[in-house]
Please model this.
Amino acid sequence: MNRKLEGKVALVTGGSSGIGLATAERFVAEGAFVYITGRRQAQLDAAVKKIRSNVKGVQADVSKPADLDRLYAQIKKEKGRLDTVFANAGGGTFLPLGSITEQQYHETFDNNVKGVILTVQKALALLPNIMLYWLSNTEASSARLYFESFATEFSTQKLDLPVAVSVFPGELYRPLKVWGERAFSKPYYWNEVARGGHFAAFEQPEIFVAELRKSFAQFR
Model:
């Protein structure tokens, strides 16, 4: 693999699972030394063990300024600089209007807005150059997909085709089987797996492929 990040120092927040973990693995493979953060020490330790080398896990909640100050003080002491910050966000819970609580509101915005802003802002003193990216260049296509899905009132339509459903526990919205039975006239395969989330093919490729094989096997 091209080691274009040789000698670079990177920070990946939320690096103990999902896209954050995959990003940290790729950065290390390309030559960087990577700091990853997470709120749960056990999950963070498992991620460090999986990456194996050129990585250090620091337990921190990015929505808490004191945790970020401690994180950046450690990075400054050990490395003296940062070359890349991957401010990872995009999780949360959904509640219908009328059921939203103040706690749920603060948790969502602390993680996805406040945490990202503080992570980048507090890193400025360690970054030699500043350039911001809206990663993956997919926001427009993603937004259009969701907008068009809502506009067509998909939930009121019944799909009259053979359908296989694999429910991943980290998905933002986890449908119930009873919903699938109402929405699909021919739901021939339904399974709830142990790991994975919104980007299942990226996060848990082995499980994703196994689910595809199980679903298509019924047509053989």
